[in-house]
Amino acid sequence: MSYDVFDDTVALVTGGSAGIGRSTALAFAEQGADVIVADVDDEQGEQTIAEVRDRGADGAYIRTDVASIEEVDTLFETIDSDWSGIDYAFNNAGIEGEQAPTGECSLDNWRRVLDTNLDGVFHCLKREIEMMTERDDGAIVNMSSVSGLSGFPGLPAYVASKHGVVGLTKAAALEYAESGIRINAVCPGIVDTDMIGRVTGGDPDAERQYVSMEPVGCMGDPGEIADAVLWLCSDKASFVQGEALAVDGGFMAR
Ligand SMILES: NC(=O)c1ccc[n+]([C@@H]2O[C@H](COP(=O)([O-])OP(=O)(O)OC[C@H]3O[C@@H](n4cnc5c(N)ncnc54)[C@H](O)[C@@H]3O)[C@@H](O)[C@H]2O)c1
């Protein structure tokens, strides 16, 4: 799909060094938006920005641990001074954490996953809303998961964090509905990225088991999630507010 709304705009993508975030950064660039990537993987982040520039857009990689409010504050100070704001934001950075049932989930794992996946979204969302309310315009997409819509055994902190993102998205969407800022979430099924590689440990049996959860019979491609994010940001989704959109090959239809 091609859009004419992204020219001369700026999009922020957290976790844009790899996987779904990188695909979305490149999709924004292909549609004419400049792209800021905030991530902790410097080498891959600079690589994403090189690919953004290959597509004729401008961009910057700004090292930011989204779990740190201080680092997020610095990110937004830089955006304010160097870019005069943002039009779109994709709060995508996330980690899966360790796999263990709830009774064996360490406090350290719980804290680390919640700090990154939920606090990280909150830190960015708060600053994005401040920035966008100055213009009364903008669109924000938060990264949740099908694990934000249903239970999934063995990743309790991850599931709790992703449910939290859906709740936060709905609350903020209602609060800012009249201000011209649209806030939605995307809830992917199983998508072929490094994260799934880490979860399956590269074990073909584990990989087959994950694929078998997908009614369409295959994992999603990161680009298929990027397409949904761009649609949610575009004027084509002008009446979509507070939605937790499953992009999941039918996972949630079971
Ligand atoms: N792959 C899937 O099947 C799937 C499904 C549903 C939701 N998601 C979500 O999509 C998002 C992206 O996942 P992915 O599959 O592309 O994984 P990925 O591991 O390929 O990419 C995650 C990116 O986030 C960055 N990141 C991690 N912690 C960070 C932090 N504290 N601050 C800034 N950046 C940080 C990583 O460096 C990496 O670049 C995650 O939030 C994940 O939970 C993934």
What does this structure look like?
By secondary structure, this protein is an alpha/beta fold. The protein has a single domain, classed as 3-Layer(aba) Sandwich (Rossmann fold). The protein is built from 8 helices and 7 strands. It has helices at residues 19-30, 42-54, 69-83, 107-133, 156-175, 194-200, 204-212, 222-233, and strands at 10-14, 34-39, 59-63, 88-91, 138-143, 181-188, 244-247. A 7-stranded parallel beta sheet has the order 3-2-1-4-5-6-7, with helices on both faces. The radius of gyration is 17 Å and the shape is globular. The mean pLDDT is 97. The structure holds nicotinamide-adenine-dinucleotide. Nicotinamide-adenine-dinucleotide (NAD) is lined by residues 14-15, 17-21, 39-41, 64-67, 92-95, 116, 120, 143, 145, 188, 190-191, 193-196.
Q: What layout of secondary structure does this protein have?
A:
Layout: E1 10-14, H1 19-30, E2 34-39, H2 42-54, E3 59-63, H3 69-83, E4 88-91, H4 107-133, E5 138-143, H5 156-175, E6 181-188, H6 194-200, H7 204-212, H8 222-233, E7 244-247
Parallel strand pairs: 1-2, 1-4, 2-3, 4-5, 5-6, 6-7
The description of the largest β-sheet is: 7 strands, parallel
Mean pLDDT: 97
Task: Give the neighbour order of strands across the main sheet.
Answer: 3-2-1-4-5-6-7
Low-confidence stretches: none
Proportion of residues in extended strands: 5-15%
CATH level 1 class label: Alpha Beta
User: Can you tell me the overall shape?
Assistant: globular
The CATH topology annotation reads as Rossmann fold
Number of strands: 7
How helix-rich are the residues, as a percent range? Answer: 40-55%
Could you state the CATH homologous superfamily? NAD(P)-binding Rossmann-like Domain
Whole-Å distance between the termini? 29 Å
Write the element-wise H/E pattern from the N-terminal end onward: EHEHEHEHEHEHHHE
